[in-house]
C-alpha cells in the first residue's frame, strides 16, 4: 500500500519536538474558544489518517465544558474527574522557541542559502533522497510543555482502556488506522508551509531536483495573496492559514504526549468484563486416604499436595502495562496494553 503524504511527513519529521501534524489548523467543528487557541494540554484525541488531531475530550475540563458537548453521545457514560492544572506554574512556555523563518527539513535535503534567493522570505531546497519532508515557519513558533508528567502518567495508566473504547466507539473499524494521544505539550505557529514527497523514479529522471516556496504577491499593489510552490518533481504540499486568519498563534505543528496502544485480545476482555471462575469444591479426603498419602509422600509433601488441590483458580490473563512517554524526547513511546 502506498504511503500517504501524512505518513511520509510524520516519519521524516518526527524528532525531539514530538510528532508533526499534516493538518496543523484547528477543526472548524471545535468550539470557538478552541478554534481561537488551538489544541491544549490535557486533550485526549486521535490522529486520523489525514494527519489531523480530532479532540475527544480534555482531562482538565469539567463535563459541562463546551468541548465535551460535541461528543456528548459517546461521552454519556464517561465519568469526568478534572485534573487541576496551573499553567503559570506547571507548564513551561517559550514564546520564541523558533524564530521567524525557521526551517525544519529531513535528512537528504539541502537548503539553498537565502543570500542567493531574490527575496528573504523565499526558500529553495535540493533533495538528494527519494523520500523527505519540509516544514517552514515564516513567523516562528511557540512551545508549551508540561513540566512534570506524573499526574498525567497516572491517569493514563488508570483509564487508558476506557479512553480507547470511547475512541473506538467514534471511529469503529477505522480506529485500527488511527493513533490515540494524551497531549502534554505542543509547538504552535501563526503560519506554516509544509511538504512531503516519495518519488524514487525522479532521482534518475530529474537532476537536479528542487523545491521552491515563497510569498506570492499581486502584480499591482504588492499585497500578499498567498504562497507559491515550484517543484521539478511530484511533491505534496500545504500552506496555512488562509487569508481570513485573525493572526492567532493557534496552528499546532507538533504535538507531544502519551500515545496509547491496546491489543485486540485485551479489548475483547475489557468489553466482556473480567471473568473469575470459583475454586472447584474439594471434598475432604477420608481419614484412611490421608494416612495413605502420609505413608506415600511424607508429611511435608502430603501437605503441599493437599494445598495444591484446594487452591485451583482460573483468572483472566492481562499482560503488564508499560507506559512510554511521547514527550518532546521520543514520540514513539506508548501506553501498551
In DSSP terms (H or I, runs of 4 or more residues), the helix count works out at: 7
Specify the biggest β-sheet: 10 strands, mixed
Q: What gyration radius follows from the Cα positions, in whole Å?
A: 28 Å
What is the straight-line distance between the termini? 27 Å
Shape: globular
User: Can you give the helix content as a percent range?
Assistant: 10-25%
Q: Averaging pLDDT over every residue, what do you get? A: 80
Measured by DSSP, the beta-strand proportion falls in 25-35%
Number of strands: 18
Contiguous runs where pLDDT drops below 50 for at least 5 residues: 274-282, 304-333
Name the structural class: alpha+beta
Please give a structural write-up.
- This protein has helices at residues 5-13, 32-37, 87-90, 150-171, 202-205, 264-272, 287-310, and strands at residues 19-20, 43-47, 53-58, 91-98, 102-105, 109-111, 123-127, 131-137, 141-146, 179-189, 192-198, 211-217, 224-231, 236-240, 251-261, 322-323, 325-326, 334-336.
- The strands form three sheets. Strands 1, 2, 3, 4, 9, 10, 15, 16, 17 and 18 form a ten-stranded mixed beta sheet that branches.
- It has seven helices and 18 strands.
- The longest helix is centred in the C-terminal third of the chain and has 24 residues, at 287-310.
- The chain is α+β, with helices and mostly antiparallel strands.
- The chain starts with a helix and ends with a strand.
